[in-house]
């Protein structure tokens, strides 16, 4: 477990995936330095519970859009009908390239299965 302060000065503990052994100490120190550099640059550390999910990201994206009404409607339809059912409650850190490829494959299978 690493003890650090984030960009706001709030004390955080980061639990590592590896056991606290002498062999892992250099790896832990390297991670601690990286997290401290991020904190100095103003980055606030988010616990997994605090991290946003895809639905929250989509809502923030749509709220910040400055496009024509028809374009906004198209984006909302795509997000609501395609992206949210697949990625909806996934935390953003869990949306990996592999997940995106699985989504694309599922969309292609769906498209080709609908063709008579």
- Percentage of β-strand residues: 5-15%
What is the spatial order of strands in the main beta sheet?
Answer: 1-2
Low-pLDDT stretches = none
Task: Give the number of domains.
Answer: 2
Structural class: mainly alpha
Tell me the radius of gyration. 20 Å
Shape: elongated
Helix content: 40-55%
Number of strands: 2
* Ends distance: 57 Å
Output mean pLDDT. Answer: 82
Most strands sheet: 2 strands, antiparallel
What's the multimeric state?
A: single chain
Q: Number of DSSP helices?
A: 4
The SSE string, one letter per element, is EEHHHH
Topology:
Elements: E1 2-5, E2 11-14, H1 25-40, H2 54-63, H3 69-87, H4 97-113
Antiparallel strand pairs: 1-2
Helix pairs in contact: 2-3
Could you explain the architecture of this structure?
- By secondary structure, the protein is mainly alpha-helical.
- It contains 4 helices and 2 strands, in the order ββαααα.
- It has helices spanning 25-40, 54-63, 69-87, 97-113, and strands at residues 2-5, 11-14.
- It has a two-stranded antiparallel ribbon with strand order 1-2.
- The mean pLDDT is 82.
Question: What's this model, at a glance?
Answer:
With 116 residues, the protein is mainly alpha-helical.
Key attributes of the depicted protein:
116 residues, 2 strands, mainly alpha, 53% helix, two-stranded antiparallel sheet
